[in-house]
Every structure is written in structure tokens, then in C-alpha cells.
Design goal:
Elements (H helix, E strand, L loop, with lengths): L2 H28 L3 E7 L4 H17 L3 E7 L5 H13 L4 E5 L5 E3 L1 H8 L2 E4 L4 E3 L18 H7 L2 H21 L3 H9 L3 E3 H6 L5 E2 L3 H8 L3 E4 L2 E4 L7 E3 L4 H9 L2 H20 L5 H18 L5 H19 L5 H17 L11 H27 L6 H4 L3 E8 L2 E6 L2 E7 L8 E8 L2 E8 L3
Parallel strand pairs: 1-2, 1-11, 2-3, 3-5, 4-6, 5-8, 14-16
Antiparallel strand pairs: 6-7, 9-10, 12-13, 12-15, 13-14, 15-16
Amino acid sequence: MTPVMRWVLTLLVLALGLAMADRYGSVQAATAPVVVQRIDGAIGPATAELVEHGLRDAKERGAALLVLAIDTPGGLDTSMRSIIKGILASPVPVACYVSPSGARAASAGTYILYACHVAAMAPATTLGSATPIAIGGSPSPAGAASGAASQASGDPMEAKRIGDAVAYIRGLAQLRERNAAWAERAVREAVSLPAGEALKAHVVDAVASDLPSLLQQIDGRVVSVQDKPMKLAVARAPVVELEVGWRSGLLALISSPDIALALMALGFYGLLFEMASPGAVLPGVMGGLALLVGLFGLQMLPISGAGLALVLLGFAFLGAEVFVPSHGALGVGGTLALGLGLVMLIDRDVAGFGIPPWLIATVLSVSVLFVALVATMSMRARRRPVVSGDPAMIDAAGEVLEADGSDGWAAIGGERWRIHATGRLVPGERVRVTGKNGLTLEVTRLSRSP
């Protein structure tokens, strides 16, 4: 073999080795998957648990990236902060992707987007309107208040809420090197941005029509994960989409205010039916379960203590109406207490967590019909003649069976009774009851039998 051929063969072997090494390295890098967790609807306790499971799953899989595909109108501050804490502590980089087109990341969703290592939006999506709302408090004019307006109105609590929210989102913006000035405006002025403008304003890192396009755009980007630089290798990574587990789905369902309230109402009326008609069993069992599940759902929400007390008081008054002859007073009081409690129970300005007006109207309508039904049945019962007991014996007629002077025995109401009259009794004559003395009936003579 000539020296030239030897050099050519050596170069070919080296080239083949490099190609195989590159291929092997690419395959190895691609084994780390991209995990996708979908978040739809209001941010609440169930959402926080869902994201926690997603972060844990991504860590256990050794994922290269966790993508939170988000579409939310906002939600609860406590749940939002719980999610952000999990993202900041995650050893796996997290990308927030507002999708699909037409979705939004409003209010709490904006904070979550700012906390993620990568922020992206699909075309025709929006984010912003991050002004905090106080649970149980009165909202500011037009649903949002600027810091200047809060100070001008002399509301120190509103100013504190705004100041805390501004400091929080500015801290997240500085951590991820994003537009802190716009983040502050989103809190103070409740402004929003579409995807294209958000990219120009350096609020998000990418605008992508779908997930593969997003992964291509951010591939090779260096992000800081737990204060350490990490290069994303996600362009060829397999995508694993997590399904919502049955427990998370159940928690999301029962922690919805309308479902929790409906369960409480069904539970109350089920128990009331069981108490009014003992022995039915099924209404009592189902009512107890529904009431407990409804209360569990409510305790996951930021409810007003006074509102809950009024709701329980209203149900108690409605239940007492069945057993106490109040001529409808307890029922009316219970309906009023229930209505006030439902209005006060949860602030409707918190996105996705207000009690719908139609549900309040439905519960109150059912309560009014219930009171009317109980009152009508009560009046009918009072007008009905007495058919048993001592009062039912007065004026009852009977026939003398045996007589011994003014005393004797008579058949009255299908029973044999000892009787006493003012005059002499004769067997076979008709008598009428005028009173009762112990076990002896006082009678008066009506006529003699022929």
C-alpha cells in the first residue's frame, strides 16, 4: 500500500469515527425528553398541584425542558406563588408557552410567565392585566388601580397590595433579564400586550406557531438554572405530554365555586329529606357525602368567613322551618341569610373563582319554593280535622252495649269504652261523647233504638 493510500484510508477512518461520534452524541442528547404540561382555566389549588406533579415528573425523567402550555384568565395569589416557588427551585428548566392561538396569560399567568426560564407566545395570544385583587375587598374603579390613584384615594391597603405586586414581578423580571418597566405597568395600569409587541418589548423570548417551532427557536439557548448556566438541547428531543390525573381532575372539579356550592345545597336538602322522612336512608347518605365534599371544595378557596357563616345560618333556618311552626318567618330569614352569604362568599373579581349570578338565583329560587311548599303544607295540616287522640273523641257517637244505671259500656269509634251519663242508660240506645274523665267517657243520650 502506497503512502498516499495509507493517508487517504486514515482520513476516511477518522471521518467515519467523527461522524459516528457526532451521531452517537446527538442520539444521547436526544434521549432527554421535553415534557409538556397543559394548564387551562383559572389558577387555583388544583393547578398548583398539577404543576408540582409536572415538575416532579420532569425531574424523574431527567427531562431537558418542562413546557407549561398555558391559557388562563388569572387566579389565586397563593396558588400562583406556590407555582412560582416550584419553578424557581426546579433543577429542570421551565418554559412558559402561551398557546394555542387565541389563548391568554392574564393576571397570575403573567407572573408565572415572567418566572419561567423561557417565555414564549403563540401568534394572536395576549398577556398582562396583572393588577392584584383583594379577596373580600372592594375593587377599585374600572377593575384596576394604579399606585398613584391608590395614594390619591387614600387607600393604604390598596397601595400596599400594588407595591408588593410590583416588587414581586420586578424581581422576577430582573432574575430572567426581561422588561421590568412593562411588568410594572402591567401591575399598576393593568395593560396587556399581544404576542408580536411582547417580543419587540423583550417581554417574551420567542413567538412560535407550534411546539416544534418553539423548540427549534430556543435550541442552544443558555439559561440559568439554580444559578448555573445550562444549554438547551431540545430541537430533536422526544416530546412527552403529561395527562391530567384523575385526582387533579377531581380536585379541579370540586374546587370550582359553583360545583362546591351546588354540592352543599344538594347535601343540605338530602339530609333535610332524611330527617323529615326517617328510613329513606339513600337521601341521607348521599346528602352527607355531597355536603362534606362541597365543604372540602370550599376550604380550598379564599372564602369569606362571614359569607360562609351566613350560608350555614341560612341553611339552618330553612331546616328549622320544617320542624318549627314559624308561619314562614324562619324560611324568609333563611333565604335572606343565604342570599347575602352567597354574594359575600367569594369575590367575583377574582378571575375564574366568582359564583355565577345564575347559580345564586337558582339556589335562592329553590329555597323560596321550599319555604312556600312547607308553609302551604303547614296551613293545610292546621285546617285538617283531628282524627286521633282525645280531641277526636268529643262529639263522637256510639251505641250502648251494657248498662247499669247511669254507667255502662258502649261501642264508640270501633272500640269498647266505659261510659257515664247523667241519666239512666238503656242497652241499644245512641249516645254522644261530651267529655273524658280518665278512661271513662262522659256521654249524653241521643235516642233509643227501635
